[in-house]
Design goal:
single chain; alpha/beta; Peroxisomal Thiolase, Chain A, domain 1; 11-stranded mixed beta sheet; 11 helices; globular; transferase
Length: 356
């Protein structure tokens, strides 16, 4: 018999004030820009200041989001830490490469190099919470977080671990922003975030953030939802969305009729949001349609925020108006499906269910 997997705690650092788990999007920040920086908590509350000074923003976000998740789950013993990231600690990478050029490859400071690897966040979290177990980082572009989620799910189902910390983390950097603007992946003109669905231009608004989750095969008082499964597709044509969706739901003994809401990764790119329009055309009339990237921007592990959103919705049964594209006709949100893709590639489906 397949073991159940529960989301027992979560922590989020994003372009909204999500670091406070006492409420969920009660005060939404609206932006008019092309890049949305994360709203940081007081890092002194989570990281020793002498250590924080030497950390890049992405590392601080990751450690803090992880600690918030652990506190939210009542500080369980963690058997493994699995992270996903698209660009890793890119700020330190840029610092090190810049110093190579500026100093003619001599007298280099090693710190940026040591902290520039993609697994820096996972390693720093392990040191901080004294976890000596399995520690792995996935770098699979916009499927990075889902790869980490799938790994954790398999380990829990096979009893290789009892409680796992899983997260997605990506940070903004000046150089990467310039490159994405140059190739039109970021919009050329400032866009009002609350009007993103009406965008008629190419490119997205970009962001950064860290979202961590405590997964376990044991339910507890802090449990948010049950994770039924996740599926990834590197490439997927629009005309095949229907059969892939039906097959994914069928694998979990569900149909389109069972979906109470879907959480979609609309990012305002007129060229690729059509995937979501095709997807929504398949849904039943009672199924709610929700979106979130107008709140946090686009980045490789932005889909982790979708899991955070769906988990909050299932536990608290309250849907903030700012994320509703079409209101659900169901009185209770029991089954929620997440669908994300980036520029027509790296498609992912994740399914959550209430614990009742």
């Amino acid at each position: 018999m397949k073991k159940s997997i529960y989301i027992n705690g979560l922590g989020s650092i994003s372009s909204q004030k999500t670091y406070d788990n006492t409420h969920f999007l009660n005060e939404v920040i609206h932006y008019n820009n092309t890049v949305l920086p994360a709203v940081s908590p007081n890092y002194k509350d989570y990281i020793v200041p002498s250590k924080a000074r030497r950390m890049a923003n992405g590392v601080k976000m990751g450690i803090t989001a992880a600690k918030i998740a652990l506190k939210n789950a009542n500080h369980p013993t963690i058997n493994a830490i699995i992270t996903g990231t698209g660009m890793g600690c890119i700020i330190d990478t840029e610092k090190f490469v810049g110093s190579i050029i500026d100093n003619d490859e001599q007298y280099l400071t090693p710190t940026p190099f040591i902290q520039s690897t993609h697994n820096t966040v996972g390693g720093q979290i392990a040191i901080d919470i004294n976890c000596k177990g399995y520690n792995f980082t996935y770098v699979q572009a916009s499927n990075s977080f889902e790869s980490a989620l799938l790994d954790a799910s398999l380990q829990l189902e096979l009893n290789e671990a009892e409680t796992i910390l899983v997260g997605g983390i990506d940070e903004l950097s000046d150089h990467s922003i310039k490159i994405h603007k140059k190739i039109n992946h970021i919009k050329n003109a400032a866009t009002a975030s609350n009007q993103l669905l009406n965008s008629t231009t190419k490119g997205a608004i970009f962001g950064e953030g860290a979202n961590f989750f405590v997964l376990s095969n044991k339910r507890q008082d802090s449990t948010y939802a049950k994770l039924l499964g996740t599926s990834m597709h590197n490439t997927l044509k629009k005309e095949h969305l229907n059969e892939v969706l039906i097959a994914f739901l069928s694998a979990h003994n569900l149909t389109l009729e069972n979906l109470d809401s879907v959480v979609l990764g609309y990012n305002g790119d007129v060229e690729f949001d059509s995937f979501y329009n095709t997807f929504t055309s398949l849904l039943k009339a009672h199924t709610g349609i929700l979106y979130y990237k107008h709140l946090i921007g686009e980045y490789h592990t932005a889909s982790a925020f979708a899991l955070y959103t769906a988990s909050q919705l299932i536990r608290h049964q309250q849907t903030p108006e700012d994320i509703i594209k079409r209101k659900s006709l169901k009185t209770k949100q029991s089954i929620i499906l997440l669908y994300n893709q980036y520029r027509g590639e790296h498609h992912s489906f994740t399914l959550l269910k209430s614990c009742e």
